[in-house]
Write a structure and sequence with these properties.
about 190 residues; alpha/beta; Rossmann fold; 7-stranded parallel sheet; 8 helices; about 15% strand; globular
């Protein structure tokens, strides 16, 4: 694992712990020598992750749609900035540049990014580890929902194992480093016709 995409909120949340842990995440990723790819903003948890990386001499690439860049939310100090036209292009560029995906607390955008990667993994389109950092129990309900989806027959146990949970970043990164994707046949051909 050399590069990691980080999905997280453009807001801070009500508990300062979220921002503190986002900064610490950036710091730890930089200290481990991992290149970070994220959404390019200077605000919210996204900005905290970027600051943690940059303040510890790490490399971070922001990927931002032009319409958001023009709202003056782009982080100015990034190692690299990729400007794209759409949110779909943003997700694709982030996916293409990473070896792994790390998810911190966030809202609809964070969920959209995470669920697309989970779906692609379930379809056998990639074998990248997807780790969810459960800061302050933020994702407890999602963990319970995963169990319900398996119990009710809408998600196989094999697909459930694609999403790695932990409330400890060091433990989560260890899980991601040792991750072996389940043997899921690719449902969709990667080549276009």
């Amino acid at each position: 694992m050399k590069s990691i995409a980080v999905y997280c909120g453009s807001g801070d949340g009500y508990n300062e712990l979220y921002r503190e842990q986002a900064y610490e995440t950036g710091r730890m990723l930089a200290e481990k020598g991992l290149s970070v790819i994220y959404g390019g903003a200077k605000i919210g948890l996204m900005g905290a992750v970027a600051d943690g990386v940059l303040n510890n001499n790490g490399n971070i690439t922001g990927v931002i749609p032009d319409f958001l860049r023009n709202k003056e939310i782009v982080h100015e100090g990034l190692t690299d900035l990729v400007v794209v036209s759409t949110m779909h292009q943003r997700k694709l560029v982030m996916y293409e540049q990473c070896d792994a995906i790390l998810v911190l607390p966030g809202g609809w955008g964070t969920m959209d990014e995470m669920f697309e990667m989970l779906t692609w993994g379930q379809l056998g389109m990639h074998t990248k580890p997807i780790g969810l950092l459960n800061i302050n129990g933020y994702y407890d309900a999602l963990k319970a929902l995963n169990t319900t989806m398996v119990q009710e027959g809408f998600l196989g146990e094999c697909a459930r194992s694609i999403l790695l949970f932990s409330d400890s970043l060091p433990e989560l990164l260890d899980k991601m480093e040792s991750y072996e994707a389940p043997d899921i046949p690719q449902v969709i051909n990667k080549q276009t016709t």
